[in-house]
Specification:
Length: about 475
């Protein structure tokens, strides 16, 4: 859909599209009565998967709406439209994403610590309600013109105690690999505020040095590095970086969750470093936010929203460099490295197959119609048609549309199918009105990866 055909919740009018992906879109809209600008994140019904997913999403939206904190992008409204799509209405935040600001290098320490302090306070407020953010990264931090910051995109957060925490319904890991704690990336250990603390330490490292602890790695390499490789010290990245600040960041990046300081504790340690100890190369690095942006606008390095991790084609090898003078010690190093590589390989194998996947193919489609006789009756009957699509587990795009009784059609749509995703659930709600009789069957029209038409049970509307 394009332009003014994009649906927005009741009471709002579309201003412009901000970003979109396979599972939904973000638009800038205006409240028709108050005139207030808002950012609306709409999640397609098929991305929610089931009624349980929708109920969980609605429950979390209500909890997030209570998270009224100046450093959190506020949730203002939640609606479900006639298509079954869910919409989160959020406050509009003028300014720039932290990711965009870091394109030119690290922030000056004073500016960086103000931003990190606001993000730490936001995470502390969320943790008090049992919320794990799950996707802390510079693209989800919005720096306002006055230098303050707001943390956004709690869209993949899960409440603690939910069995689906850090996983989709098929058990796949979600998040951004460059920031993921070892226990989150490889599915080991408890997931709690210390997991967010690791990602926050990555964010702090990036904000103060201008780069991630493990830059330039692909998805598999990043997860393996966070799991098994000691990150570089910040003073090795930025000459003259204060030793106390580097030690604080190193503790935040500890593989052991118990050793990590919580976000506010880490910021307190960084703020305790005297201003005179920061190197001149950083003290002149700060920049004012550039042109205004808004919540939901994709940034240069993280344009895609967090998605289920795609399959890497190989797992990086851990290097072993033997020496002649310490033969016995070298043999133990080799054995230890092989054991570590095997452990990481097994953990990564649990997430990804070892060979390249086949392209997406549809194996079967089953449809249902609920209720069979329509809900409400004359002069208006409501129906919901659903399709369960079984795939071969290959990645690709499922493109489709719906043909409805009475000659109506629903616009073309598509789903990004992840590798290993064997089931795709589609649904559409529609109404039949008026005094004329209508009969016929809704039809799911699949146009990719192959062409097929699948009819649902027929309707027989009379009035």
């Amino acid at each position: 859909m394009t332009g003014t055909t994009r649906p927005v919740p009741r009471g709002y009018e579309l201003v412009r599209l901000l970003g979109e992906g396979g599972f939904g879109e973000v638009v800038l809209a205006r409240h028709v009565v108050l005139g207030r600008l808002v950012a609306i994140k709409r999640v397609h019904a098929f991305a929610l998967g089931s009624a349980d997913d929708l109920a969980r999403f609605e429950r979390e939206a209500k909890i997030l709406a209570t998270l009224d904190h100046p450093a959190v992008v506020r949730v203002l409204d939640f609606q479900i439209d006639e298509r079954g799509d869910a919409a989160l209405v959020m406050e509009y935040v003028p300014g720039s994403s932290l990711d965009a600001l870091l394109q030119d290098g690290p922030l000056a320490p004073a500016a960086a610590l103000r931003v990190l302090g606001d993000v730490a306070d936001a995470l502390t407020a969320g943790a008090a309600r049992g919320i794990v953010h799950r996707d802390i990264k510079s693209a989800n931090v919005f720096v306002q013109p006055d230098g303050s910051a707001k943390l956004g995109d709690f869209g993949i957060a899960r409440m603690l105690g939910d069995p689906a925490v850090f996983r989709t319904t098929d058990g796949s890991v979600r998040g951004t690999p460059g920031y993921m704690a070892p226990e989150a990336g490889l599915g080991e250990g408890a997931v709690d505020a210390r997991t967010d603390a690791y990602a926050f330490a990555v964010l702090a490292f990036e904000t103060l040095t201008g780069q991630l602890p493990f830059p330039g790695l692909d998805m598999a390499q990043a997860l393996v590095a966070h799991y098994s490789v000691v990150p570089p010290s910040a003073d090795a990245v930025v000459p003259g970086f204060p030793a106390a600040a580097a030690a604080a960041l190193a503790d935040g990046l500890s593989k052991d969750p118990a050793r990590r300081p919580l976000p506010r504790e880490l910021v307190d340690r960084l703020q305790a470093v005297p201003a005179a100890e920061w190197p001149a190369s950083l003290t002149g690095a700060g920049r004012a936010p550039a042109s205004p942006t808004t919540v939901g606008r994709p940034s240069a390095r993280e344009a895609a929203p967090p998605t289920v991790l795609q399959a890497p084609r190989s797992v990086p090898q851990l290097p072993v460099v033997p020496t002649r003078r310490r033969r016995r010690r070298t043999s133990w190093i080799v054995v230890a490295a092989l054991v570590a590589a095997a452990a990481v390989g097994v953990a990564v194998w649990r997430l990804w197959p070892s060979s390249a996947p086949d392209a997406l193919a549809v194996e079967s489609v089953t449809t249902t119609l609920d209720p069979a006789n329509g809900g409400g009756g004359c002069p208006s009957a409501s129906y919901r048609v659903a399709a369960s699509v079984t795939t071969n587990g290959g990645p690709g795009t499922l493109a489709f549309s719906w043909e409805l009784p009475g000659g109506r059609t629903a616009g073309a749509d598509s789903v990004a199918v992840e590798e290993g995703q064997r089931q795709v659930e589609l649904s559409l709600s529609f109404e039949l009105t008026g005094s004329a009789a209508v009969s016929g069957a809704p039809v799911l029209v699949v146009t990719a990866p192959d062409a097929r038409r699948v009819s649902a049970p027929p309707v027989a509307y009379t009035c």
